[in-house]
Specification:
The protein is elongated. By secondary structure, it is of the alpha+beta class. It has helices at residues 3-11, 39-47, 52-75, 79-106, 117-122, 126-131, 178-186, 190-199; strands at 138-139, 144-147, 159-162, 167-169, 175-176. It is built from eight helices and five strands; from the N terminus they run ααααααβββββαα.
């Protein structure tokens, strides 16, 4: 039985407090902007999602429902059914947001003493970091700086550094992000490079 069928059956059962929920049928005699679904449906759907793959699957389901609604609209028939599919797609997307928020809140925090590389990199200005290594850079565009590459005998500035955190030497072919720079500069591994950048060690 599909998840849609599960919800259809659920809608026909008495709800909390004893009041019945209208059956899960295409809308025909409702206002165009009214919705067939309510907050309980959003919560129910969100509780069926347990990981990122579930969320992706349901988002695809919502996209399929939108396409089905567009197809029905183009045929000019059963407008109530098309509206119903759109309601379903909106409900699924809201449930996906709720499920993702729940998963994000439950995600384990980094272990004590363990650095988050993405967080470390997000706080680093690569241009300033390289200049602190006594490597002069000069502006060569709205988001690009150039300077002599420290990793080979560079007679003319062949290293470019971009403000988005990338660098590239067009003489040696080396390049990457701030961690790649530190790894090449110090001959160290990735974890040590993260620690060096996080500690501001030059």
């Amino acid at each position: 039985m599909s998840l849609v069928d599960d919800i259809a059956q659920r809608q026909q059962r008495p709800r909390l407090g004893g009041w019945p929920r209208p059956t899960w049928t295409p809308r025909t005699n409702r206002e165009p902007d009214a919705t067939v679904f309510d907050e309980g449906d959003v919560r129910f759907l969100s509780e069926q999602m347990h990981d990122a793959e579930d969320v992706r699957t349901m988002l695809v389901d919502a996209a399929d429902a939108e396409l089905e609604a567009d197809t029905l609209d183009s045929l000019g028939e059963t407008p109530g059914k098309a509206s119903y599919y759109r309601d379903y797609a909106r409900t699924v997307r809201a449930a996906c947001r709720m499920a993702q928020d729940r998963m994000d809140a439950a995600a384990p925090a980094p272990l004590p003493g363990r650095l988050d590389a993405a967080d470390v990199k997000s706080h680093i200005d690569l241009v300033s970091y390289i200049e602190r290594q006594n490597i002069p850079l000069r502006k060569a565009g709205h988001d690009r700086f150039i300077g002599a590459c420290p990793f080979h005998e560079d007679k003319s500035p062949s290293m470019s550094v971009w403000t988005d955190g990338r660098w590239k030497c067009f003489g040696s072919g080396a390049g990457g992000d701030v961690f790649a720079f530190v790894m090449r500069q110090r001959g160290c591994g990735f974890r040590e490079a993260v620690q060096v950048v996080a500690g501001g060690t030059s």
